[in-house]
Amino acid sequence: MQAAMDISAKYCQKELESYGSCVSSNPSTWQQKCHELKMKVAHCTASHPVIQKIKRDCSKEFVEFDKCLRENQSTPTSCTSHVARFVGCAETVDLSKVETNPASSST
């Protein structure tokens, strides 16, 4: 998971900062108010091979975590066990054969 977060931060820093700021500013309504920014983060990270592999390999855990967040919008901390399962899965994903810097091959 840390690898995915690092890559997200590296390639999508502006989007993540905007989204994080919106969520912090809207603790009980962030799902609605920050939806557009969430989509920008998703679009930015969706094309990165490392993140794609983690999402594929841990799709069950990710879906359960996402569902919990949607069902507990005003208390996202109630999804701690869900995020822990997703993180646990993500940390076991073999990234050794994944290209981690696709942008460099196109420049």
Number of helices: 7
Terminal Cα span: 27 Å
pLDDT averaged residue by residue: 82
Question: What is the total tally of β strands?
Answer: 0
Overall helicity? over 70%
What is Rg? Answer: 14 Å
As a percent range, the share of strand residues is under 5%
How does the helix and strand content classify structurally? mainly alpha
3D shape: globular
SSE run = HHHHHHH
Report low-confidence residues grouped into runs of 5 or more.
none
Q: What's the structural domain tally?
A: 2
Sequence-ordered SSE layout with sheet pairings:
Blueprint: H1 2-25, H2 30-33, H3 35-46, H4 49-57, H5 59-71, H6 80-90, H7 102-106
Organism: Oryzias latipes (Japanese rice fish)
Domain IMS import disulfide relay-system CHCH-CHCH-like Cx9C: 5-49, 52-91
Pfam family, one: CX9C
Task: Name the descriptors.
107 residues, mainly alpha, 2 domains, 0% strand, CX9C, CHCH_domain-containing_protein, IMS import disulfide relay-system CHCH-CHCH-like Cx9C domain-containing protein
